[in-house]
Amino acid sequence: MIGDLSDIPEYSGDLDQLEKDAGALKEAASDIRNTGRDVHNDFQGLVSCYTAPEADQLFRTTLPVRDR
Q1: Based on C-alpha coordinates, what's the Rg of the chain?
Q2: Where are the domains of the chain?
Q3: What does pTM read for this prediction?
Q4: 65 contacts: CB under 8 Å, gap ≥ 6
Q5: How far apart are CA 43 and CA 63, in angstroms?
Q6: What is the DSSP string of 9-68?
Q7: Rounded CA separation 68/53 (Å)
């Protein structure tokens, strides 16, 4: 149980600016996800022309880029 209400943190900044910044971060996150997807898709385009013993392993390296 909370003993002293002054122990509860309270945001004292500019809420309008915080909302704008949160929106910008959300847009940037979307751009990052799209870039990761595009990198993976472009890299997978090499599957038809690249053959090597490690090819499967190499082509799996972009899965985390796409998914995270």
Answers
A1: 22
A2: 22-67
A3: 0.63
A4: 36, 39, 40
A5: 10
A6: ----S-HHHHHHHHHHHHHHHHHHHHHHHHHHHHHHTTTTT---TTHHHHHHTTHHHHH-
A7: 27
21: its two tokens = 């910044």
Q: Among 5, 63, 4, 60, which Cα is nearest to 36's?
A: 63
The count of residues in the chain is: 68
* pLDDT tens by residue, 3-58: 788 888 888 999 999 999 999 999 999 999 999 999 999 999 999 999 999 999 99
